[in-house]
Design goal:
Elements lengths: L6 H13 L4 E7 L4 H13 L2 E7 L1
Parallel strand pairs: 1-2
Length: 57
């Protein structure tokens, strides 16, 4: 797991992944994290090469 604190760092990482032809899943969250979010993360991990989870509180 990598935690990005600056958007530019995330953008650079995503650029490199796309350049390699890798797939990227996004699980956006808002509010309290719950089992539904965990389920979406598991599904994204199974279906993609990389998964990004945004945590907005």
């Amino acid at each position: 797991m990598v935690i990005f604190e600056r958007i530019v760092d995330l953008q650079n990482e995503l650029f490199q992944l796309r350049k390699q032809g890798r797939t990227i899943g996004l699980v956006p969250t808002m509010g309290a994290l719950h089992d539904g979010h965990a389920s979406l993360v598991r599904q994204s991990v199974q279906q993609n090469d990389a998964t990004v989870v945004s945590v907005f509180l």
